[in-house]
Amino acid sequence: MRAAKTIGEKPAFGNAMRRRRCLFPADGFYEWKAEVGRKRPFCIRPRSGAPVAFAGLWETWTGPNGEEVDTACIITTAANHLLAPIHDRMPVVIAPEAFDLWLDCAGVDAATAAALIVPAPEDLFEAYEISTAVNRAANDSPALIAPSGSQPAPARHGCAGRQAKNH
Length: 167
Known about the structure:
CATH class: Alpha Beta
Largest sheet: 5 strands, mixed
CATH topology: hypothetical protein yedk fold
């Protein structure tokens, strides 16, 4: 994930912000709360159960052997009040009514699109702690998003698959 504040500072991201904006559909994401001696994983997903779209950028690079390498990143911003106790950053969510604005690189300049880079509304997501089994790539099952401990079970299933954690 790429933090919004550095998008304009890096030439590669600046070009992608002007010409190659994209959306990543997701039904949630994982985040880790750092504590002394450990990190606790959380599943963060829309309260409505509907998918959301994260703001992204894509680029094609020339690799060291002359090969084309396609890359993409999810843009992050400061966490909203709900998520701030878990992590200081969160993915930028683009509302459905702003999809065309975000994706229209020819008609919408980077500065106008950048105005969409804000924390998600406070009531969009729910967050709950999950098992540390999510920390191992070999683990892949619906049980990974079950609440840990004495938390009540969420009403629906779904959290993003192996999303990259914020950096």
